[in-house]
Structure formats: C-alpha cells, structure tokens
Amino acid sequence: MKEKWWHDLIGYQIYPKSFQDTNSDGIGDIPGIMQRLDYLSDLGISMVWICPIYRSPMMDNGYDISDYTQVDPVFGTNEDLKKLIDEAKKRGITIIMDLVINHTSSEHPWFREACKDPEGEYGKYYIFRKGKDGQPPNNWRSIFGGSAWEKLAGSDYYYLHLFTVGQPDLNWENEKLREALYEMINGWLAMGIGGFRIDAIAHIKKDLSGGDLPADGVDGLCSGMEYFRNVEGIEEYLRELKTKTFEKYDCFTLAEVDDIPEERLEAYIGEDGYYSTVFDFCHCFHSRLDGDWRDRDGEMLLDVRNRVFERQRNMEGKGFFCNYLENHDMIRIPDRYLPKEDQNFYSLSMLPVLYFFLSGVPMLYQGQEIGMTGFPREKIEDYVDLATHNSYQGYLAQGMSPKQALDKINRNCRENARTPMQWNDGPNGGFSEVTPWFAVNPNYTDVNVEKAQQDSHSLLAFYRRLVALRKDCLYKKNWLYGSFTPLEEDSGQLWSFMRSKDGQELLVFANMANECAQTKGHYDGKVLLNNYGRLKQRDGQLLLQPYQAVVLERV
Ligand code: NOJ
Is the CB of 297 under 6 A from ligand 1? Predict the structure, then answer.
C-alpha cells in the first residue's frame, strides 16, 4: 500500500453544540474548541472532525444547512474558524469539517427559489415529483420516519426528503448543482481545512423509476433503502466529486457509507478510491439493550468481532477503514456493550483495545475517553432531537404505551450520546455557566475530565497510553501496514489478533466477558499495554482476568 500523509492520524469527533460553551448561551462554540486544543493535543489527537457548524435553522442540529459558506453565529464566525484551524495546526492537529451534500435545509435560498417554481432553474436543484391522486409519488419512508415526500402547499408537487422535512434532497443529476457544490467545497479547502467527513453520501443517487413498494410497516410505507443507497451508477458522481475537489488538495476524506459490498470496497477506499477512508457500520446495530441482541452480550460481542475481523481481512493491504465505536448517532458504548453493573475501569478500558490496533484510522468521540454514558429521561419532552421524537411517535403508532415508548427511547436514542461534555464537577459540568441546551448527565460530579486528569490510573490516562502506543515509532509501521491474523477464533469471549511486519509480532488480547479466560495458544512477550497490574500465565497460556486487555510484543 502506498503511504499517505493521513495514514497515521488519530481522530477525535467533536459535537460542537455539546463541547464547550464560552459565551454563556448554553451552546458550545468554536472559541470553546479553541480553549480545549491543549487537552486534545495532550491526549495525542492529530485530527479533529467537527460536526456541522454552517449556518442552519438547526432542525437536525446543523445537518440542515441554509448557507454553506458561513459559520452559524451560534458557533462563532468564519474568522473564529480560521483562527482555530491555525492554532490547531500549530499543535499538529488537522481540522476536518462535516460535508452535508445529500440535502440542504428547506431554508436554503436555493430551496426557497425552487418552491416558487419546481420546474425552474432551482427546482432542478432538488427532487420534485407530482403526486398521484392526492398521494405522494411513492411510499418510501424517510430514514427519520414518516413519508419521504412532503407536499408543496398550493401545488401538485412533492419534494423528496430522505431525512427530516426540513432537509430536501439535492438532485445530483443536475450538473449545475454539482458544480455549485464543488465550488463551495474548494472554497473551504482553500481556507486550510484538512478535509471532510462526508455525510450521507451513499444516498446521493436515487432510483425513482419504480412506483409503490410492498409496505413493511403499519404506516403503509416501505424503507426503500435499496432505491436510494449505494445505487448502481453512484460511482460516476463520486469519481467526479473527488477529481474536481478533494484530489486537487490531497485532502483527507472520511465518508459515512454503510454496507459497501465487498467487491466495491477497493473502488471506494483502495489506493485510488473515491475517499481516503469510510466509517463502516458493521457493528453499529448491536446493542445489548435493544433489538436482536437484547441481553445477549456474549453472543453480540462475538458477532461484532467476527464482522470486524471479516472487514479487516477483506481490506488487508488494500485500504484503510476508519475504526470507531462511538459517535453522535448511537448510544454510548458502555451502555451498548456492557451490563450496568459491569461498567468499571477494566471493562471501559478494554473497549478501545478492541479497535485501536486494527488496521485503519482510530477515531474517538468526545467524552468516550472519560467513560461518559447516557442517562434515562423521565419525559419525552426532555429530548430535543426531531428524529428521536419521530421514533417515539412511531412506537406509539405501533401500539406501545407512552411508558414503553419512552423506555425504548431511553435505551436506544441517539441523543443520549449528545449530552454536554463533562469537564469538571462544577455547575453544568464546566460545560457552560448557564443551563445548557440539553441536560448534563448528573454523574458529572464523578465522571469528569478534571478528576480523570488527577488520577494516573484513570480511563483518560489509559487512553493516553493507548494513543502513545499507536504512535510509538518502534511499532507504528506495524500498526499501520502490518498483516492481520486473528487468534483464538474459536473462543467465545476473546478478541485477539496479531499484527506482523518485518519479523515483529504484536499480539492483542481483550477478554470481553466478566469471567476469566485462558488462551489455547501459548504466547510470550514483552507487555506493552495492560489494563491490569499484571498478566497471569500458566505454562505459556495466558490467563486473562475479567475484561482484561493486553498488548504484547512477541520476543
Ligand atoms: C448522518 C448524521 O450523522 C446524522 O446526525 C444526520 O442526522 C443525518 N446524516 C442527516 O444529515
């Protein structure tokens, strides 16, 4: 694999609304990120992805953009952003922005013009179709619930919105639209950002040739995903997008693309792929609290392991995934993978070992490094997110009682990962001097950065060691380009593998269960990382303690 400048990045995702408020409006801002750059640099972070900060009515917290060229005043100014980019650079941190080009806000001037004349110049920027007999053009369900079509008042036209009604989908078939987007993208790259995390890009091509699909829910709608995700022919757009923008700046691109078929992986993230790397979703739908995996922790983690290992094997030597466990769209990882009573230093520190030493770019989500968790709300009104409210309504429509629906929301809603960052045990966890836009988890008096910084055995300290080992020049090339060999695959509770390069063998073991595990194989080596004080061995076999994670260099 040809070496690229971005291969050794260690990423950190910031949800700006919840990171650090400096102007006392209860909402995080760019000066707040600036204030915390040293913290990120101490942690060893070299790339920061900031969720959308463009001007927006905030119907979907910034994923609904009304002006691509301006920072929303709630976060600061374009000058603040420029300053942040420069200050981050001084600390060896590259800033990447979120790029939301599947849709705009319904308040974007393009869409306002489009509504005046759906057949006119700007009408062609979006996807309008006439309804049939007073019904939407088809029965696709929006990813956030309800019909994916919204009627334009006083006309026969409907517009497509795969997400909320406030996020009309752009028409990528229109070259003029594409050129307008490229110009905007190049403008940001020229300003000095290191690249983009690319939102919902798998959806830019739609197949609208068919009619209604068989309903798959009580709402009479159908998910229709195969007609608007990774649709055949999307590659043409992706190639053009890369050539006309990213490639010119040799920037880093990290695309949100679920379910790329194995045979297409190389085209996406191989040497000459459309993107540098992608967030794969192969482990995202696993939660011990909900759905198929309810209370089947052991089997669930095993399934996650098998899927992740499979993806690693598929891409070996060809390209990089971006490896992660948390983000702003999923409940926090301790809640997802661990029983409440098992959440302690050992289990929480075992979790990042699962993915930090795989081939790829490791990514952290704000607060993961101190073990932030969600907390159940007593009423649905305590949630802000529209998608969460839509899900709640959907559960009621399925016949759940309000209590059952709220319980389900508390178990699986994405907004639980968006509580404000817990910096200290002061008012509002040090996030803001005023009541924040979304309540801080009451456990902030115990779980906070300041406390973790004072304890050399804290989770935060462990994350620092983890990052340091990833970056250690003695091992770095192996972590980046070494081969991947799964170990102990028939074990039901061990996540273990070997990375090898030029005769160096690095062994990673994580015991995913709250009981001891003995390896079948014999391993010996120098301990590079251990979340316990010691490593027990019996006749060369490792005796791993509950949730123990170790990294060894074979000697
Ligand atoms: C994916 C983003 O991560 C999510 O937060 C957003 O709501 C949708 N895309 C729509 O932009």
Answer: no
pLDDT, one tens digit per residue, over 281-316 is 999 989 998 888 888 888 899 999 999 999 999 999
Is 256 part of the annotated catalytic residue set? yes
Q: Is 329 in the pocket of ligand 1 (CB under 6 A)?
A: yes
Q: Are the C-beta atoms of residues 97 and 16 closer than 8 Å to each other?
A: no
Give dist(CA 478, CA 87) in Å, integer. 31
Report whether residue 440 contacts ligand 1, using a CB cutoff of 6 Å.
Answer: no
Given the residues 64, 98, 169, 199, the one annotated as active site: 199
- CA atoms of 505 and 87, how far apart (whole Å): 38
Q: CA–CA separation, 526 vs 505, rounded Å?
A: 11
Residue of 329, 386, 389, 416 to mutate, ligand 1, most atoms within 8 A of C-beta: 329
Which residue from 54, 60, 197 has its CB within 8 A of the most atoms of ligand 1, so it is best to mutate? 60
Taking the C-alpha atoms of residue 215 and residue 231, their distance in angstroms, rounded to an integer, is: 21
Q: Which helix (H) or strand (E) holds 48?
A: strand 47-50
Distance in angstroms (rounded) separating the CA atoms of residues 154 and 366: 45
Mean pLDDT is lowest, of 215-219, 370-374, 428-432, for: 215-219
The DSSP call for residue 252 is E
CA dist 103 and 488 (Å) reads 45
Q: What distance, in Å, lies between the first and last C-alpha atoms of the chain?
A: 27
Query: What is the C-alpha separation between 226 and 23, in angstroms, rounded?
Result: 45
* Per-residue pLDDT, 258: 84
The number of beta carbons lying within 10 Å of the beta carbon of residue 133 is 4
pTM over 0.90, yes/no: yes
Query: Taking the mean position of all CA atoms in its chain, how far away is CA 209?
Result: 32
